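Wed. Picked up where I left off yesterday with Transmembrane protein 11. The coffee machine is broken again, so keeping this brief.
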Amino acid sequence: CHRLGAESSCVLVVRVRESQHSTRVTLSSTDCYIVHEIYNGENAQDQFEYELEQALEAQYKYIVIEPTRIGDETARWITVGNCLHKTAVLAGTTCLFTPLALPVDYSHYISLPAGVLSMACCTLYGISWQFDPCCKYQVEYDAYKLSRLPLHTLTSSTPVVLVRKDDLHRKRLHNTIALAALVYCVKKIYELYAV
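Structure written out below (tokens, as returned):
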């Protein structure tokens, strides 16, 4: 695993690499980055955030975040983005399929608010998350995949492990559904108020 930062951390990199070879972890040097919890001065939290930002921009396959505070904040940020994505998809699907399931006179009471919610979540995701490098990552919980990482070298017992995933299809899905919901809502509002 790599570690960016001061020269004092280079010794740690060598130890991590040595332990990788001795435990036969099959990760290349570009697969994993560890943000270690090493307090060097009073700006340690800023250093952790800088290291995480550099690792995200370098697009490592796995990023292990040892500092608890920044790990928890990152996991929450990813969870909120996931929630916005799922809400946009589910609300948009509800908007589009409610008219098929309910009588025409009542369907707009559910489909219009669901469509507005879908568009709002999609817009918020697009503004706040779409260009954030963190949106390309998910928190890894799979024990098998975690066992392949050099977690035994960490001082923290509860690191947050991020795995890079392609989110292109996910973005296309919620953008398409939200756009279809927008078209439906505009059409339905026109029908309701034009008559």
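Quick read: Residues 144 and 168 are 26 Å apart (CA to CA).
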